[in-house]
Design a protein that fits this description.
By secondary structure, this protein is of the alpha/beta class. Helix content is 37%, strand content 12%. The two termini are 32 Å apart. Bound molecules: zinc ion (2 copies).
């Protein structure tokens, strides 16, 4: 049975533009729509394009400081320099682009909570490096964190799980909720690249101890090894936590052809992640799952990964074989390094999750 799924977009998403030389391409969502149109996904009646909206100042302040919001606005009006130490340019209009991208994730929460749509996808959300008071790594406002707080405040949701499969550590999101037991953050990422954090001993602090989970991965991890980690650590932790809402940061830069990261997922690995988290959402959170985009610096691969994701999430019976990578991995079992690492992580987290 297909599930009604919203794809949330807005033309002003394009204002989140760091310039033609920058690896972050603001138009990736348009390529997703093109693929979905070609596959006649909208004609099924189960997937609909919904317009994003601008987030309000009050909504931005659920996470960000007024000083930082004002700073981004001023820098964006000036249109020169960087918002951080050199990764995130302050181009004209970037403030508007960032605000509407946050609004897209908030529209997603509204649709899920009002039960209009079972699932929601904001291809231009997932800006997981942004801090309360600082931009970082191409991320201006942390729509994921704002969406989580918004769901808690507006809809009285208490427990939220954020699963982040972007190739980079979701450090901004983790930092915001580091002492908060009501938001479980889980990040799988290549360890040792930007931003440098995300070792498995980072588990949260104070009341939040045990509610930040990190899976640091070595270069080149393939589907089999990645999914071994996912199924043996992430799935049991989320099951035991029992979230009322799941947010999946579905960054596409863990793909083997991504030019920035160096992990080894294929489109089939991504599909299996989506299927697993989709199933968890029906099992644990009444199907409530907000999927966001994130990184993904090979634009065509990113568009394929996200399109396959939408089609699987909606449960449509559409042939997607041509959207998949042609490569087939020969490895049939996870690497010894991964098996050993999973065991180390499992025993480290055992005191917080007895089902591990
Ligand atoms: Zn579903
Ligand atoms: Zn990334």
């Amino acid at each position: 049975m297909p599930c009604k799924t919203a794809v949330i977009v807005h033309d002003d998403y394009l204002k989140y533009d760091f310039g033609p030389w920058h690896p972050f391409k603001p138009y990736r969502w348009r390529l997703v729509l093109e693929i979905l149109e070609k596959k006649k996904v909208f004609e099924t009646g189960y997937v609909e394009r919904i317009s994003a909206r601008y987030a309000t100042l009050e909504e931005l302040m659920l996470v960000h400081t007024p000083e930082y919001i004002e700073y981004v606005k001023r820098m964006s009006e000036r249109g020169e320099g960087f918002l951080d130490y050199g990764d995130t340019p302050a181009r004209k209009g970037v403030f508007e682009g960032a605000v509407v991208r946050v609004g897209g994730s908030l529209v997603g929460i509204d649709l899920l909570m009002n039960n209009v749509y079972k699932h929601a996808f904001n291809p231009c959300g997932g800006l997981h490096h942004a801090r309360e008071d600082a931009a970082a790594g191409f991320c201006v406002f942390n729509d994921i964190a704002i969406a989580a707080r918004y769901a808690q405040k507006r809809y009285n949701i208490r427990k939220i799980a954020i699963i982040d499969v972007d190739g980079h550590h979701g450090d901004g999101t983790q930092n915001i909720f580091y002492e908060d037991p009501d938001v479980l953050t889980i990040s799988l990422h290549r360890y040792g690249i930007y931003p440098g954090t995300g070792w498995y001993t980072e588990v949260g602090s104070g009341a939040g101890e045990g509610f930040s989970i990190n899976i640091p991965l070595p270069e080149g991890v393939d589907d089999i090894s990645y999914l071994y980690m996912f199924n043996n650590i992430v799935v049991p932790v989320v099951r035991e936590y029992k979230p009322e809402l799941i947010i999946l940061q579905y960054g596409a830069d863990s793909h083997y052809e991504d030019p920035l990261v160096g992990l080894g997922l294929t489109t089939r690995g991504y599909q299996e992640i989506m299927d697993t988290v989709h199933q968890l959402s029906h099992e644990l959170s009444s199907g409530r799952i907000l999927v966001t985009g994130g990184g993904g610096y090979n634009v065509n691969n990113t568009a394929r990964i996200w399109s396959i994701g939408v089609i699987r999430l909606a449960g449509l019976d559409i042939d997607i074989e041509d959207l998949h990578d042609k490569v087939v991995y020969v490895r049939e079992s996870p690497s010894q390094y991964i098996i050993d690492l999973a065991e180390k992580i499992r025993s480290y987290l055992k005191k917080y999750y007895k089902d591990l």
